[in-house]
Input
Amino acid sequence: MPTRTQKTKLETAQDNLREAANVPEATPIDPTPIASKTVHQAATFEPSQYVAGNLFADTSTLPRTTRIDADKAIQSISEKRETLRLVGANLQLNTDVYKTGSLSEKMNQANITYQSDGINTQAKMVGFEVANVNLQIAGSKLGQTQEKLNHQNIELAGLQSETPLRQLYWQAKLSLIESRISQVELAKFTLDSKIGAIESEAESIE
Output
């Protein structure tokens, strides 16, 4: 059996095919940037190079491969195709994952917008509550001012009611003074009359 460092008959046959078709040895395929001008050259099969010139003899340039080696190679190729199928499934899965991740990011963006709107709403609610409190304060101050006005009106009404009484009081006091003055004058007149009468009597006695 060939070792890992030796080429199998299939690999030797593939090399012969490439040399006959003037195809360079296969190289790993790397992702090519979109802007790159590199073109991948795929292996091709040229039938005219391998047809048998003599149909009654072994004249084809095709390399020889035993059935066992061919079965092994076909099995290996089949397994590689399964590998590609697995890779394709994972690529599709990754694509779906990225699409789902994109939806998640959009959801996060919507969530951020929602929370931002919620914060703005709360800020407006706070502003509304502040305005409401200011309105209540203004209403309270207005009520206090109205009560002060009512007190002033009551005091004014009391003073207005007191004015006629004060007028009567001063009129009565003035009348009383006038009456006392009249009494004093009357008493003075009476006293003067009595003194005059006494003086008259005294003169008559002399």
About this structure: Confidence is low (pLDDT under 50) at residues 1-5, 26-31. The helical segments are 9-21, 67-205. The radius of gyration is 66 Å.
